[in-house]
């Protein structure tokens, strides 16, 4: 499997979209996505959790790209995300992207982002090519 390189983010995005299209969102896992992109599961998590990768807007950019693709390619009208309790940085990323907390569970908080109103293009100009 390939080590992380500049093309890996694009391969992960493409792999995720292909798997969502082929198998549906609920049937796609990190392991499947990493395998399709040609990286190991360990590399996937090492990149996303590495200190060197934090604070540079990469999580927000990756989420915006996936949200944009879900809207334009798959016709999604809503996005949901879960954040484990105590994971303030991930909750902050979601809030910056326009997600709002909608439900509390014992171990995580569910966030929601409507993609139809107000227009998601205003929230995600790069993701929507605007």
TrEMBL record:
Residues 6-66 form the HTH tetR-type domain. Keywords: Acyltransferase, DNA-binding, Transferase. It comes from the Bacteria. It is an enzyme of class 2 (transferase). Gene3D superfamilies: 3.40.630.30, Homeodomain-like. It holds the Pfam family TetR_N. Residues 29-48 bind DNA. This is GNAT family N-acetyltransferase. Its EC number is 2.3.1.-. One of its GO terms (molecular function) is acyltransferase activity.
